[in-house]
């Protein structure tokens, strides 16, 4: 039996790359799919089953408002936190005054998840996954993400944001352990997409040369879909394909506590 028939699934960043492949594959199985993104996207053959909500994660007020509307209109079974960017070359601030990657790749997604959990029927199962990256392993353990121009490094900003996603899934699994909810992070490997968009022109050219040697996003979408059908997911864990990775980063407890305090001092303003 396909566990995914007639489920209601939210995919953030569903307008391109992996997100778009996930959208199409879940629709093909007869589910209702809600995608978010900044761009317009029409999928005419799935009318009635596909719903696009346009939202820019660099604006937390808009992110919260759109997420609340989605929750008012749909009762979700699955959430895939997939929206993401490669960090811009130059230090860039969001509308809310945070470093761009930190907000789009992590903070806005944590806000989305908390709103969904708050509005979710407590008796109903919910799976929340996040598309992270292997680079989370090279992120520094001081959780000192790029806060200002002087210490900005785009590789660091990206790897930090991917570590924060992993920590978020682990943190939510403990915070909501009494509820019928499962959280996990997913490592997709390197696949071809449009993630190079915010990068300099030379990067675009190099990316196009390398793209044929990267994984096909259709295959990556199938891997994640397969994972979501498993009934024995270890909540809070990181998954590589079907494998559960045991090496959750070891972070100092005090640093973690102050990281969550800071995150919630922002998130709570928009709940
Ligand atoms: N490609 C890889 O090799 C690779 C490897 C490891 C991890 N990942 C992760 O996989 C995920 C999907 O990336 P992809 O490679 O498929 O890239 P992609 O083709 O660029 O897709 C990214 C998606 O995120 C959305 N997005 C970007 N900025 C946004 C913003 N400010 N507000 C709202 N939505 C925004 C985009 O929608 P709009 O443009 O419509 O806003 C798009 O739908 C990302 O989290 C990425 O970090 C990718």
Descriptive notes:
With 271 residues, the chain is of the alpha/beta class. The chain has a single domain, classed as NAD(P)-binding Rossmann-like Domain (Rossmann fold). It is built from seven helices and eight strands, in the order E-H-E-E-H-E-H-E-H-E-H-H-E-E-H. It has helices spanning 17-28, 60-73, 100-119, 154-175, 201-210, 217-228, 253-267, and strands at 8-12, 32-37, 50-54, 78-81, 126-131, 181-187, 237-240, 243-245. Strands 3-2-1-4-5-6-7-8 form an eight-stranded mixed beta sheet, with helices on both faces. The termini are far apart. Bound molecules: NADP nicotinamide-adenine-dinucleotide phosphate. NADP nicotinamide-adenine-dinucleotide phosphate (NAP) binds next to helix 1.
Short description:
This protein is α/β, with parallel strands linked by helices and 271 residues long. Helices cover 39% and strands 15% of the residues.
